[in-house]
Automatic annotation (TrEMBL):
Protein name: Amino acid transporter transmembrane domain-containing protein
Residue ranges, compositional bias (Low complexity): 40-55
TM region positions: 208-227, 254-274, 286-309, 378-398, 461-481, 487-509, 518-540
Region of interest: Disordered: 1-72, 125-146
Species this protein is from: Setaria viridis
This protein's UniProt keywords: Amino-acid transport, Membrane, Transmembrane, Transmembrane helix, Transport
Topology class, membrane: Multi-pass membrane protein
Keyword presence, Transmembrane: yes
GO BP terms: amino acid transport
Family per similarity comment: Belongs to the amino acid/polyamine transporter 2 family. Amino acid/auxin permease (AAAP) (TC 2.A.18.5) subfamily.
Highest rank taxon of the organism: Eukaryota
Length: 548
């Protein structure tokens, strides 16, 4: 009985909930999904009960239906990635998600009388809404009131360990992203900590290595368009794992999901290494002595950062972190540098490849667009602007520091300048807010595997804490920011951004592709495989050499 009350209080939106008796009449898109889901359910039941083969739902070979994509692991992918990428924004513009914003507003309303100005500034839209937008938002709010926690006293007494950590959501037609919002979301995804290592990439590969950055940008745009073609090929495809499911079945879905989650996990490790390096620069003499054990500044700050970020992974509402993670971290020229450094090209390949590791989120952004025909243009704008930022940071950083450039150019900044300290502190603050948003998708996918009677808040806290501690142990074991980034870029990003989109495109569309599309996909996959092999081998070799 307690479970049913919890479901009425905080309803999780999914395809299975379209028939909820308290919901308002669904939109055309929702009705179409429901019809497709009903057809898929009928097919499954018919095949399972041995119904007459003449039934229109019966097929000799089971094909994935729209409902099957949302009923297999990981079901939480879109919800968690939307939070990470800040896909949609009725209240906080492009930052935050619709359901989380509504729940956050219902919470802050109770404090509005005490701190009206502060709260009103927090929930004020970043983009000024038009009259039509306000009318659409009001209609969407009325049609989705059932998402909010019930105000009935009999339904408010829900045990803490029975409440879901997050509420899933489905973007309504009235809450789609505009062109500008989608561009900002895309840049927010692409331009992360990778920008700190672009000067180091020039040091490794030379000035001509920037051609690799431009080549990767062009190929990333093309493979992003291929993902769009895959999403449009079948009903119900919304995320990267869905594409893998449509292309290679359940095995493809699971394999792609694992690759995407490992990439996010590696980013969390990078965050801890980054924090440790930059805080050690600010406080080089800091240490901690416990008995006969002395922790140097790097180890001490890595542990301290872990202690700080761990509580953020326990939060039920991550919209505040999604808002704060929008901070941008960026900061004179004499050095000429090397034109081409062949021995360092493999490391440069990995570092430049890491810069375009946003393809796991692009399907979510595409699914959230008001006008999906604009996606190629949006993707081109995102990648072009990101490439300009990467190249600009690379050129300026390398011109300033030359062959002394370190794996993060913030480590080269003068220690006696105030502006340098501001830049380093900004760099330090950003990963702290992004860490929880990055680890939550992996955590939620693992939480799905827990037995229903074990999905309690206390158990989930323990699981998330264990994940955080594991990233700390790896960060302390492999404290090489640039080499770890090159390894991630060579191995994982090459798969996610270049190899898998082409493979999925050819597998899904099959005979519908033209010969020049086959040639282009084959070329990209060959480039991706070669770069992955060379970059991974070189990165692992350099990491091993660092211990000897």
């Amino acid at each position: 009985m307690r479970s049913s009350v919890s479901e009425r209080s905080l309803i999780i939106e999914s395809d299975d909930d379209d028939d909820h008796p308290q919901s308002q009449p669904p939109s055309a898109a929702a009705a179409r999904r429901r019809r497709h889901h009903d057809q898929g359910s009928g097919s499954d039941s018919d095949s399972g009960s041995g119904s007459d083969s003449s039934s229109p739902c019966a097929t000799p070979r089971a094909e994935p239906t729209a409902s099957s994509y949302t009923q297999q692991w990981p079901q939480s992918y879109r919800q968690s990635i939307d939070i990470l990428s800040s896909v949609q924004s009725p209240n906080l513009s492009f930052l935050g998600t619709p359901t989380l914003s509504r729940l956050s507003n219902s919470f802050t309303n109770s404090f509005r009388g005490k701190t009206p100005e502060i709260i009103s500034n927090l929930v004020k839209p970043l983009l000024r809404p038009t009259t039509s937008d306000e009318q659409q938002r009001e209609e969407a709010r009325k049609s989705s009131q059932y998402l909010l926690p019930s105000r009935k006293p009999s339904l408010q007494q829900i045990p803490e360990d029975q409440k879901p950590l997050l509420v899933a959501h489905e973007v309504s037609p009235h809450q789609k992203c505009s062109y500008t919002q989608a561009v900002v979301n895309g840049i927010n995804v692409l331009c992360g900590v990778g920008i700190l290592s672009t000067p180091y990439a020039i040091k490794q590969g030379g000035w001509l290595g920037l051609a690799i950055l431009c080549l990767f940008a062009i190929l990333a745009w093309y493979t992003g368009v291929l993902l769009r073609r895959c999403l449009d090929s079948k009903e119900g495809l919304e995320t990267y794992p869905d594409i893998g499911h449509a292309a290679f079945g359940t095995t493809g879905r699971i394999a792609i999901s694992i690759i995407l989650y490992v990439e996010l996990y590696a980013c969390c490790i990078e965050y801890l290494i980054l924090e440790s390096d930059n805080l050690s620069k600010l406080f080089p003499n800091a240490h901690l002595t416990i008995g006969s054990l002395t922790l140097n500044s790097h180890v001490f700050f890595a542990i301290l950062t872990t202690i700080i970020v761990m509580p953020t992974t326990w939060l039920r509402d991550l919209s505040c972190l999604s808002y704060l993670s929008g901070a941008v971290d960026n900061v004179g020229f004499e050095n000429e540098g090397t034109v081409l450094n062949l021995p360092g090209i493999p490391i440069a390949i990995g570092l430049y490849g890491y810069c375009y590791s946003g393809h796991g989120v692009f399907p979510n952004i595409y699914s959230s667009l008001k006008n999906r025909n604009q996606f190629p243009s949006i993707l081109f704008t995102c990648i072009a602007l990101s490439t300009i930022l990467y190249a600009g940071a690379a050129v300026m950083g390398y011109k300033m520091f030359g062959e002394a450039t370190k794996s993060q150019f913030t480590l080269n900044l003068p220690e006696n300048l105030v502006v340098s300290k501001v830049a380093v502190w900004t760099t330090v603050a950003n990963p702290i807010t992004k860490y929880a948003l990055t680890i939550i998708p992996l955590s939620m996918s693992l939480e799905e595997l827990l037995p229903p009677n074990q999905q309690k808040y206390s158990n989930i806290m323990m699981l998330r804490s264990a994940l955080v501690v594991s990233t700390l142990l790896i960060a302390l074991s492999v404290p090489f920011f640039g080499l770890v980034m090159a390894l991630v870029g060579s191995l994982l990003t090459m798969l996610v951004t270049y190899i898998l989109p082409c493979a999925c495109f050819l597998a899904i569309l099959k005979t519908k592709v033209t010969w020049h599309q086959v040639a282009a996909c084959s070329f990209i996959m060959v480039v991706g495989v070669c770069c992955a092999c060379v970059g991974t081998y070189s990165s692992l070799s350099r990491i091993i050499q660092s211990y000897t």
